Amino acid sequence: MNYDVIVVGGGHAGVEASLAAARMGHKTLLISMLAENVGATSCNPAVGGLAKGHLVRELDALGGQMGLITDEAGIQFRILNQTKGPAVRGSRAQIDMDKYRVIARNVILNTPNLSLAQETVESLIIEKDVVKGVKTDLLNEYMASKVIITSGTFLNGIIHVGEIQKKAGRYGEERSEGLSASLKNDAKLNLSRLKTGTCARIDSSTIDFSVMEEQGGDELPSPFSFRTNREEFRANKVQLPCYIAYTNPLTHEIISSNFYRAPLFTGQIEGNSPRYCPSIEDKVSKFADKERHHLFIEPQTRDNTECYINGLSTSLPPEVQREMIHSVVGMQNAKIVRYGYAIEYDFVDPRELRHSLETKKISGLYCAGQINGTTGYEEAAAQGIMAGINAGLSLQGKEPLVLRRDEAYIGVLIDDLVTKGTNEPYRMFTSRAEYRLLLREESADTRLGKYGHELGLISDAEYERIKLKDEQIRYGAQLLEDTKFTPNKEFNALLESMDEPPLKDVSTAQQLVARKTFDVQKMLKIMPELEKFDDYIKEEILVEGKYARYIDKQSEEIQRMKKYLKIAIPEGFDFTKVSGLSKEVQEKLKSFAPPTLQAAMNISGITPAAIEILHIYIKIAK
Ligand code: FAD
């Protein structure tokens, strides 16, 4: 059975990888252990969030599926950090996780060039460092010159619930042993262990929501996908609330008195956990002085029969989980449907990969998703689409698509992984991106749509919409720059009516909108000609105007950085003399002795700030 591309694993990475490859015209096979779990959300029933929302919108701009499925399966939509700067706002949606899975599977099965096989891949077929295909548990051999592994948390997975340990990929699902061994022994990849965890799920009818704070969605919800019609979406989307509850000193007492049974502390778990998504036992231990922690009670489906308790991830024994949940106000009578657990699994050192996500050792073999040391559906999906695209491009004899750090969060994600590796589950943050103002969620389509279109993943009509959007924003931003106001009586009266201080000197519209207090409404009062644009275009024009100076500065910095990364580091350069670099960084540079600033940048743990300092020293040394 011959294919062009085989994708192993139908999680978020596998869904995007297989769709991208098939849509680029390549005969693709998605092999996954359980057909009904294609697109399953192992942990929280939500997509997006800070920086993760950026990834989903970038993926969408490239022609990916996650945003579209989220819009259809979503039950609540919010923009986080609304009151903060535009670069750090993030879209987040609660989803009906059952519906999400069904939609994902249906899309896969309805996509031309794409087949689905419910089997378990046991080993890779590799000849002379070139991948040829895979063998499954049913002894089928599937051949392809491109194989993408997206096996998530399943490689040699071990689940921990208190002292109980089970071999599994997710609770109730088999783990993958053969594939792990094959990656190690046949592909000679370097594998290590990581850990993640999840919370208990509660029967919603046993929760007293009346004593909890309600948290609704945005009044005007925004869809994730640029291809979803905003007006129709807003008119038709019915949203469900989540609820906020709190742990309390009693909860903490129950947890801390059972630390001795927590696999995280007893040495039972070896892999590193996600620092930014800690379990409740971790939080209680690290922040012992905190009297309470937030819990978000999130419906898992639109029927709201089962709830996810965000903030209460745990691997404590079942009876301790019951006790701690019953100590929370509103959950005294809660019935647990599924217990929380931790899972340890093998992952591939992402430094084994090129920026295309192809392994350096085995030609044609790609890895994407949690297997590369990341955590999160969005991080997985973003890598998935890039692996699918690059497998497709390679089949077409073309260069891989490598997104730059100043171009996309996806570029930051992959660059961080393949150059620096990770020793804890990697999740995306806005702080990881050096050029945040350029990488706003809303600009994802104008940044990346051209690639999606070139690859055939974005339709001509959609690309026309993107080009029009870009033109309108450019036009508006230029208008703000070109329009000047003189401080006359009439204009100052207009400003006064908006509670704005009067003008003293001639000023451009751009300078005015740069005022902290200027919003879209005020902008329209001084520039009524912008009224004709859609609301989201007006918002983008305002943002471009407000942050023009910073955006220009970042663009200049990118150009400057591009130039100076080529600069050679003199042979024998003494890194230990560079003050401003930590001892650790100095030692690292000394041992690697990079020949250029670019090579220095590629070393794990070397930040752009360190490169700036080094650049200055090299200039002085010359
Ligand atoms: P997965 O979604 O894990 O999908 C892997 C797929 O590969 C599965 O369908 C599996 O059946 C298939 N597969 C594996 N091996 C084979 C094989 N040999 N043959 C055929 N098919 C195979 N993320 C967060 O952001 N925050 C969290 O707090 C968090 N907690 C988590 C807790 C738990 C218990 C688990 C299991 C996951 C958690 N995650 C969390 C991670 C999140 O679920 C993953 O990041 C995301 O699902 C990874 O997507 P993926 O596509 O890489 O893999």
UniProtKB/TrEMBL annotation:
The keyword Cytoplasm applies. HAMAP family: MnmG_GidA (MF_00129). GO terms for cellular component: cytosol. GO terms for biological process: tRNA methylation; tRNA wobble uridine modification. It is found in: Cytoplasm. NAD-binding protein involved in the addition of a carboxymethylaminomethyl (cmnm) group at the wobble position (U34) of certain tRNAs, forming tRNA-cmnm(5)s(2)U34. Homodimer. Heterotetramer of two MnmE and two MnmG subunits. PROSITE patterns: GIDA_1, GIDA_2. It comes from the Bacteria. PANTHER family: GLUCOSE INHIBITED DIVISION PROTEIN A (PTHR11806), PROTEIN MTO1 HOMOLOG, MITOCHONDRIAL (PTHR11806:SF0). InterPro entries: FAD/NAD-bd_sf (IPR036188), GIDA_C_N (IPR049312), MnmG (IPR004416), MnmG-rel (IPR002218), MnmG-rel_CS (IPR020595), MnmG_C (IPR026904), MnmG_C_subdom (IPR047001), MnmG_C_subdom_sf (IPR044920). Residues 545-616 form the tRNA uridine 5-carboxymethylaminomethyl modification enzyme C-terminal subdomain domain. FAD binds at residues 9-14, 121, 176, 370. GO terms for molecular function: flavin adenine dinucleotide binding. NAD(+) binds at residues 273-287. Its cofactor is FAD. Belongs to the MnmG family. It comes from Sulfurimonas aquatica. This is tRNA uridine 5-carboxymethylaminomethyl modification enzyme MnmG. Its main location: cytoplasm. The gene is mnmG. Keywords: Cytoplasm, FAD, Flavoprotein, NAD, tRNA processing.
